[in-house]
Amino acid sequence: MPEGHTVHRLAAAIARGFGGRRVRVSSPQGRFAEAAQLDQMVLLGAEAAGKHLFLSFAPSEDVDRGSPVVRHVHVHLGLYGSWTFAGDPGVFDAHAIGAPRRRLGEQETALDGGEDWRRLVPRPTVRLRLAGEHGLADLTGPTACEILDAEERRAILDRLGPDPLREDASARRFVEAVRRSRTTIGALLMNQKVVAGIGNIYRAELLFRARLDPLVPGRDLSAGMLEEMWEDLVALMTYGARTGRIVTTQPEHREIEARIVERSRGTRQNTDEEADAVPREQSFYVYHRQTLPCRLCGTEIRSGDLAGRTVFWCPSCQSVRSRRAPWSREHPAAPWALDGPSGQRVA
């Protein structure tokens, strides 16, 4: 399932391609018949909250977003959802975001050689198509695709925990929600009511970088440690939203035990094909590295079931329970010193 940084990239791409303009809206698949209500309306903007995407439509661009005439398309990609894009050069910075998919129209015709994207025929599985003056966006396989009014949109936002990538996010809400719970921190990080947007990769890597045992009860953790975890999460997800990739390793650790235990389908990210992409076998400390040696201490990485998902951890590095993680600012993998693929400071 795409993690929160992916949805923020989607919101930015859709706003860039269609924001403030009238949009043709259709449902080639026919399973989103409500699309006809939005056809030729203006897309006021796109908003991400955790793993939820909201597209706001109105009869004209001068309508206030709080007006009752505004209709909000709510999309949740789930495990298989994806958006694919095609358009004029420079309109979109990615051809697909979400679960790995072919390029838009790849089955019908190539996009190179000057082919006109306006003649691309949607695949029969396209739930929703947005078509504007400069590009197309097709949605396939979402768990949710529905029209909401303002009250229904607000109800979804109100039940979510703070999203580290939103300006209105509150670290205090995260800290308080964790500290009043007996549930393990590994389970709490996957609870979207505690923190919105974290998936299995961010959970595993955040806990490793905090040197924290996944089974520690939330109430046993200090406020200071949780605040540092929040700051690290903001840095990690900001990097992910900017690049389209989750990379948690320091450059000096990436060649150490550069292996990963992949499933048959593999651990893919949407920008793997880019020249500067960090290979996935170098991107993580513990995620999908069960049975392999820890990059830092050599202990075998373990895996187990927690909150319905597989959790990965190093039993040696992640032994801290109720005190601050023993990182120092001199430690090469300190959580506040994440470097990007070229060594640039992210946090």
What would you say about this model in short?
This protein is 21% helix and 18% strand. By secondary structure, the chain is of the alpha+beta class.
Describe this structure in words.
The structure is a single chain. This protein folds into 2 domains: 4-157, N-terminal domain of MutM-like DNA repair proteins; 166-313, Orthogonal Bundle (Helicase, Ruva Protein, domain 3), CATH 1.10.8. Helix 1 (4-18) packs across helix 6. It has 347 residues and is α+β, with helices and mostly antiparallel strands. The protein has helices spanning 4-18, 150-158, 171-179, 185-188, 200-209, 223-243, 280-283; strands at 22-26, 41-49, 52-58, 71-76, 82-87, 96-98, 126-131, 135-140, 144-148, 302-306, 309-313. The strands form 2 sheets. A 9-stranded antiparallel beta sheet has the order 6-5-8-7-1-2-3-4-9. Strands 10-11 form a two-stranded antiparallel sheet. The protein starts with a helix and ends in a 34-residue tail after the last strand. It has 7 helices and 11 strands.
- Radius of gyration computed on alpha carbons: 21 Å
CATH architecture of the largest domain: Alpha-Beta Barrel
Under CATH, the homologous superfamily of the largest domain reads: MutM-like, N-terminal
Helix content: 10-25%
**In the CATH hierarchy, what is the class of the largest domain?**
Alpha Beta
Proportion in β-strands? 15-25%
User: Might you state the CATH topology name of the largest domain?
Assistant: N-terminal domain of MutM-like DNA repair proteins
Task: Please state the average pLDDT score.
Answer: 87
- Strand segment count: 11
- Count of the separate structural domains: 2
User: What's the SSE pattern?
Assistant: HEEEEEEEEEHHHHHHEE
- What is the overall number of helices? 7
Low-confidence stretches: 105-114, 322-347
Question: What form results from the Cα inertia axes?
Answer: globular
Largest sheet: 9 strands, antiparallel
Q: Name the strands of the widest sheet in spatial order.
A: 6-5-8-7-1-2-3-4-9
> What is the terminal separation in angstroms?
25 Å
Overall structural class, as computed from helix and strand content, comes to alpha+beta
